[in-house]
Amino acid sequence: MLSFRILVALFLLALPGLAAAKSLALIIGNDTYDNVPSLQKARADASGYQDVLQGLGFDVTMRTDLNGRDMGFELATFLDRIAPGDTVAFVFSGHGWSDGRENFLVPTDIRVGGSETLIARESFALRNGVNGIIDEIAKRGAGLTLAIVDACRDNPFATDQGTRSVGLARGLAPIDAPTGTFVAFSAGAGQTALDRLSDDDPAPYSVFTRHFLTELAKPQDLQSAFKRTQRLVNEEAGRIGHPQRPAYYDEVIGAACLSGLCDGATIVAQPKPAPDRNAAAARDWEAFRNSNSIDALRLFQQQYTDTAYAALANERIAQLQVPEAKPQPTTTTPVTRQQARPGWCPNARTRTERAICANDTLSALDIALEAAFKAKRATLNGAARDALLTQQRAWLRDRDSCGDSVSCMQTTYALRLDQLRN
């Protein structure tokens, strides 16, 4: 039987608002390209950001020289880890390009020949309003997002004659950042970023990164760190006659910093709306009100101790703790209390369905999930509603793959509840 501690953890995961926010970072540094000019500092840049962000408490994933397939895999794996309220950092150092409207990051196996359409399909959109990297992070409800892009080097698709591919712009284009997002570019619109000041430049990092790393590590907000970096890079690049003025796009409300302390003051990531505690308690009480599990009821009472529903949970616990009266020889057998079951249980056919209907905890989770799904569906229409139905069918297949494993199904239900409620 599943231990009570594990059961507690599963219930806490299923209930909204309890999971602690994380600080996650994905860092990619691409130096060695197959078909376009290689760089010298991108891998070192990635290593430098890894050291700084780990020092600031981030759980860092750092990868270098990724081809298209591997880059797609690492991005998908990282996105799957993001939960609402997390602080997220995405760092890319390598080649990038723009069509003048959207910006793209380049994997190491990008092909030189072909149309702009083909190059775009083999690159990774930074933000396009649909499925760009920053769009996907925003969909997952990150509390604060920092995107650092040192990919404003000159167009890597120039021909041997020095001309540019048709439609490709110099540097990167300005970006419309989502709410709660701070985007840092190593150069301004139409400018290119220096990988190094000269061929014998001894600094291990690019011109932008060498200054931004120093500022990020200081107890100051992101805006202050970037403005100082902007000034230093502009001055240093200007000394060799190269215009480079780093640009940032800030949609963070107020100041924000990654260390948690900015000039001695605590800075909180983008706040999320406070949940309606009574509404949440009322919704979840429907799944617990007829429960025969005192442990489950106590979990509910602890979660909603500041609402009137805590008293209802205590009352139900008291009812369950009253000893059953011993039946007299002449009386009929007392009716056994029956935990509420999903409405489809009389028609349960698979071993997964039978296991759910035979287990109090799984039954309560299924009832809660059905209510959460209906509530979510009621807020959607059109394509979004269809997408939700498709996701739910996929989730049912995942659940059924558990067979009759109670622990597997508890985890599956808990994760889906968290997705639907957030």
TrEMBL record:
Signal peptide, first to last residue: 1-21
Q: Which InterPro entries match?
A: Caspase-like_dom_sf, Caspase-related_regulators, LprI-like_N, Pept_C14_caspase, Pept_C14_p20, Pept_C14A
- Pfam families for the chain: LprI, Peptidase_C14
Query: Where is each Caspase family p20 domain found?
Result: 21-96
- Indicate, by first and last residue, each region the UniProt record lists as having compositional bias (Low complexity): 327-339
| UniProt region (Disordered), positions on chain | 324-344
Q: Which GO terms describe its molecular function?
A: cysteine-type endopeptidase activity
Any idea what this protein is called? Uncharacterized protein DUF1311
Q: Which organism is it from?
A: Yoonia sediminilitoris
